[in-house]
Each structure stands twice: as structure tokens, then as C-alpha cells.
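User: Here's a chain of 92 residues. Predict its fold as C-alpha cells.
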Amino acid sequence: MKLPDWYTSGATLSFIALAGPALAVSLIIGIAGAIIQTTTQIRETAIAFVPKVIGLALLVVFGGGLMLGTLKHYTRHVMAAIPQIIHVHDPQ
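Assistant: Prediction complete.
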């Protein structure tokens, strides 16, 4: 069974659009926290954890609507194409 090309590439792009911003925010805040911990020589886990939680919460507040819109668009596209996906190989 061969799936349409948009099905797999759309899933990959949707995953990148949903997970990419959260991973980028976590990475940037994590590096900044590590630099602060290194320069101050304070080894407290809250310095690394709390800013990440706050950053991700702000990401959800300000970018959650766009992320949800991406997910909604892809889900509607897949649901509308279920008959095409199921009957990709129609023996006649």
C-alpha cells in the first residue's frame, strides 16, 4: 500500500511546527541557565528548571493558538482524505 506523498510530508512538517518552538525555547533557556550556573558556580536545579517551565508556559499562552491551528488543519486534511488513503490500491 502506497500512501500519498502529502500524508507523510504533512505529518513531518506538522510535527516540526508543533515540537520545534518548544524544543527551541527549552534549548535557549537551558543554555542561558547553564551559562549563569557556570559563571556564578551555583549548582541549584531550580535555576535550570523554573525558567524552562515559565518559558514553555509563555510559549503556550502566546503561540498555542497557532500551534493548535496547525494541528487542526492537518487533522481536518487527514480526516477528509481517509477514503483516499484507504482505497489507495483499488483492484479493478
